[in-house]
Write a structure and sequence with these properties.
Length: 285
């Protein structure tokens, strides 16, 4: 890395907090001035997670004005970063056409997170914006118990048969326009869509093109079931340092995957709920 490059992770915490406060103040100033263009300009310079933080810090009136100012410029990924209470409020504020376009750009697990707590009528409105295949996938995910692996998993999975070569796999990925973001492993499956092995991308890229995937794949890997509790899945990731875990349906077929980012988010949520219960303010208090 060059000396003049600065990693975001190396920034002092107080510098990040200063940037965050400056962004909130800039948005509020733009809203007070009735300058929607300036508000959109601030949003355009923010990472989706930072934009979600800004939205959460606004008062309700400011939030309404900001969401309306953003309109179609609202990044879909920012919606998936919002806390539940703010998320539901923002979704109700969005124009149906804007919301429809947003959900079409998100992975299935993010769409499920966005709409799982909406009222039936609002949920129906979002589902109707999807094409038939995506609508079926999301409806099926919503049919799994709340806080289960089936709700948490991502349906977009990169799979391949064991007889493909490394070269075929790499060429396939290069030519594909709809690879999931992010993904870390290729899952090798049999004709019945039952997992046979997994290949980390680092291993795949380091293998010779003529080798078969069967000769490269790791045959020892951990899986979860669609009905497993999210808390148990998160602890499995934490204990065994997993990056990806295939999710199997009742017949052992591949239903989706859970990646480390979603597993850790679930673990953070469980930890927060445990702390609230200990403080006597949780749901079971």
């Amino acid at each position: 890395m060059r000396d003049d490059e600065t990693l975001e992770a190396d920034r002092p915490r107080d510098a990040d907090e200063a940037d965050h406060h400056a962004a909130v103040e800039a948005v509020v100033a733009a809203l007070d001035a009735g300058d929607a263009d300036a508000a959109r300009a601030v949003a355009a310079d923010l990472h989706e997670a930072d934009l979600a933080d800004v939205i959460e810090q606004l008062t309700r009136g400011q939030r309404v004005a900001f969401v309306r100012a953003l309109g179609p410029a609202m990044p879909p990924e920012a919606l998936a970063e919002l806390e539940e209470s703010t998320r539901d409020e923002v979704l109700r504020l969005l124009d149906p056409a804007v919301l429809a376009e947003a959900v079409r750009e998100l992975d299935s697990d993010d769409v499920v997170y966005l709409i799982e707590d909406l009222e039936d009528e609002d949920q129906k409105r979002v589902l109707e914006a999807l094409d038939a295949e995506d609508r079926f996938v999301i409806s099926q995910a919503l049919g799994y118990p709340e806080y289960s692996a089936g709700r948490l998993m991502q349906r977009e999975v990169v799979t391949a048969p064991p007889w493909w070569t490394v070269g075929q796999m790499i060429d396939f990925m290069r030519a594909s326009d709809d690879l999931p973001e992010p993904f870390y492993d290729v899952i090798v499956v049999d004709p019945a869509m039952k997992p046979l092995g997994m290949i980390p991308l680092s291993r795949l890229l380091g293998a010779r093109r003529p080798m078969t995937l069967e000769g490269v794949m790791e045959t020892e890997f951990r899986t979860v079931r669609v009905a497993d509790e999210q808390e148990d899945v998160a602890r499995l990731f934490n204990k065994y340092h997993l990056v990806t875990a295939p999710v199997l349906d009742e017949t052992g077929r591949l239903a989706g995957v859970i990646t480390i980012d979603d597993a850790m988010a679930a673990l953070d949520e469980e930890t927060e709920e445990d702390m609230l219960r200990l403080a006597g303010v949780g749901d079971e208090a």
